[in-house]
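Lab notebook, entry 94. We have the chain sequence and a SMILES string for LWBT4IAB, and the next step in the workflow is to get a structural model of the bound complex before anyone spends time on docking refinements. Request logged below.

Task: model protein plus LWBT4IAB, output structure tokens.
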Amino acid sequence: MLFAVTMDVALPQDMESDLRADTLAREKAYSQDLQRAGEWVSIWRCVGQYSNLSIFDVRDNERLHEILWNLPLFPFMTIQVTPLAQHPSDIAAG
Ligand SMILES: O=C(O)CC1=CCC(=O)O1
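Result returned:
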């Protein structure tokens, strides 16, 4: 199942710098592990915003929820999920 997910990040201004660096490093490693596994298909920066637009390919809603819930940055994110269906004009779909 394909999902488009927008993640808006808002870190506290007074977040301690070591905690901030550790959280961002864990977020990157977590994301890249899931990219290597094929579940996190792509990640794009939204221009001019501390936000990303990502595509996930996961078995079901519960798996996407598990992935998002365990993001190290989850407590500092506003997340919007859009389930995707095939478009009838997509030439790649045949
Ligand atoms: O968009 C960001 O910077 C937050 C994020 C999600 C996965 C990642 O590596 O960074």
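Notes for the group: The chain has one domain: 2-85. Worth checking against the assay data. The chain has two helices and four strands.
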